[in-house]
Here is the input.
Amino acid sequence: MALSETLVYIFLMLIGFGFLYFSFKRKQAIAYPFLATVIFSATILYGGSIPFQVDNNGAVIGTSANVVLTGVSLLFTFIALIFALKKGFELFGLKPTREDF
Here is the structure.
């Protein structure tokens, strides 16, 4: 059962990577990094709920696999969010510089 859910997780991550790739290739496209952020943030919750180990009541016990899957999703969510913010600033004609932060 955990194998099928892990394959769904990997499929969702590949869709998110595809959106992130399109956002890098198409300089004027604004929707792709936002869609990648939404997909990656959904996989954060999904990766943490995959039942690699359950207790007697059927509740999911967090394992190291859940932590790794959640961490990978968090990393790429952060990358997609930063890129989405950059595209949003450029959409409104603002160029963020180092002095702004």
